[in-house]
Amino acid sequence: MSDPYYRDDLVTLYHGDCLTETAWLAADVLVTDPPYGMAYAPRGTYNRLTGKTAKSSLSKIANDRLTQVRDESLRAWGDRPAIIFGTWRVQRPDNVKHRLIWHKAGQAPGPARASFMLQDEEIYILGSGFPTTSPPMRSVIRTTEARSIEVARIGHPTPKPVGLMEILIGRCPEGTIADPFAGSGATLLAARNLSRRAIGVELDESYCELIAKRLSQQAFDFSEPVRAHPSKVELRSSGWSGAEETFDFGGVA
Ligand SMILES: C[S@@+](CC[C@H](N)C(=O)[O-])C[C@H]1O[C@@H](n2cnc3c(N)ncnc32)[C@H](O)[C@@H]1O
């Protein structure tokens, strides 16, 4: 096992391939957003005034042509509790017990002319041990940040809102969180906000640098998201009687 790329009192990050850099397997709960296997190409930024789309400077997600790396990492994890992001466009992982929807309400339509616009991603629950409440957490989580602005601000093609990750981690069984596909570090930041230990792995060294910077600067960075304290999430959950759970982060991720 190599030395950590970054470490603080709660978070440890390794630079490498999570299929060989296996420290994350010692954690208790997997919360991750793997390459979906859909060959996603980062979108350019559309300017409504000029009607032009500037080409994205961000590179594609590594290992995103197939679901192989997702499936191999899940096999290594086994039947322990896990929360995994995904898309309806590719085959879901095996043994999904429940499915949540992340409703990206702040996603701009852009210039594309089409009949329908995809504005959500799926989140799969695997394994057992997730705490229960009455009423239970609803299956749709809505965020309102402007997605393209967040991509440019954070510098990763698919950053997840830290507040969204806090809601998910707030529903996890106790113990250390693993994110073997750490990306821009949203899971690690969220875990630390909730005073939970976390172990991350990221293949791309430039993203490790980004994560280390975000974790180091977080205490002073007021552009980081408003933090959803777990008790507040619970409070909103129990007070809401509609079909959709709404967590608004006021326009920031
Ligand atoms: C969908 S992104 C994760 C985004 C992250 N949730 C966030 O909020 O920024 C998937 C990440 O997995 C990384 N990756 C791909 N293959 C990997 C592997 N074998 N081991 C570790 N990281 C890998 C990619 O470089 C990419 O940053």
Q: Helix amount, in percent?
A: 10-25%
Tally of DSSP helical segments? 6
Fold-level CATH name? Rossmann fold
Shape: globular
As a whole number of angstroms, the C-alpha radius of gyration is: 17 Å
Shape-level CATH architecture: 3-Layer(aba) Sandwich
CATH homologous superfamily identity: Vaccinia Virus protein VP39
Beta-strand proportion: 15-25%
Largest sheet: 10 strands, mixed
Question: For the largest beta sheet, what order do the strands appear in spatially?
Answer: 1-2-11-10-3-6-8-7-9-12
Calculate the terminal CA-CA distance, rounded to whole Å. Answer: 34 Å
What ranges have pLDDT less than 50 throughout 5 or more consecutive residues?
221-253
State the name of the first-level CATH class.
Alpha Beta
Order of secondary-structure elements: EEEEEHEEEEHHEHEHHE
Total E-strand runs: 12
The ligands found in this model are: S-adenosylmethionine
In total, the number of domains comes to 1
Structural class by sheet pairing and helices: alpha/beta
